C-alpha cells in the first residue's frame, strides 16, 4: 500500500468509542470514586461493562421507531440510572450534579496510545472527523479533552439516526459534500465496517483486541474484505503514505 491507496477518498469518518478512545478504562476511572462514596460494591470495570452493555439495546429502540431520536448523552444517562438501580443505589443520597458529572465520563476518555499521532498524520492528507453515534456536544468535549484533531463532526446527531442504519453513513457523506465512495469509515468493529460498505463507503479496519478487556471475544480479526486492515492508526497512516 502507498499514497495512491484510496485515491478518491476525501474524508475519513471515525468510529470513536473503542476505535479512537479506550472507553472501558475511562469509565472505570470515572466511576470508581462515585461507587466508593455511595457504598456500591461493584468493580469499576464490571460497572463500565454493564453500562456499555445497555448501549446497543437503548439505541435499537430508536432505530426500531419505538421512541423518537434522542442524543446518546440522554441514553447514557438513562442507562446509568438503570445500572445503579441494579446495584441497589440509594438515589435519595445521590445528587443530580453527581449523575451529570459521572455521565460526562464519556467525554473524558483517553485515546489509545497510537490514536492522536495516527490521526494527525492521516489529517495531512484527509479531512477527518467522527462518524459516531456520539452527539455533537459529546464529540466536541471529548475531542478537546483527548486532543483529537477533528475537522468536522458527523454521525448520529446530524442524521438523527444511529449506526448501523445506512442513513447515518449516507447522511454524513452528504454533510461533507461527498459521495459515499469518497468517504472511508475507520472502525474497530466488523458490524460498523460492513454497514459502511453496504452504504457504499470505503473501509479501514483497526484492530482493538483489548477494547472490552482481557476476555474480549469479538472483533479480534477482520471478518470482511476491507480496503485496509491495520493494527493501529499509525499503521493505517503508514499504509496510506501519511508521514
From TrEMBL:
<dbReference type="InterPro" id="IPR036412">
    <property type="entry name" value="HAD-like_sf"/>
</dbReference>
<keyword id="KW-0378">Hydrolase</keyword>
<dbReference type="GO" id="GO:0019120">
    <property type="term" value="F:hydrolase activity, acting on acid halide bonds, in C-halide compounds"/>
</dbReference>
<protein>
    <submittedName>
        <fullName>Putative epoxide hydrolase</fullName>
    </submittedName>
</protein>
<dbReference type="InterPro" id="IPR023198">
    <property type="entry name" value="PGP-like_dom2"/>
</dbReference>
<dbReference type="InterPro" id="IPR006328">
    <property type="entry name" value="2-HAD"/>
</dbReference>
<dbReference type="InterPro" id="IPR023214">
    <property type="entry name" value="HAD_sf"/>
</dbReference>
<dbReference type="InterPro" id="IPR051540">
    <property type="entry name" value="S-2-haloacid_dehalogenase"/>
</dbReference>
<dbReference type="Pfam" id="PF00702">
    <property type="entry name" value="Hydrolase"/>
</dbReference>
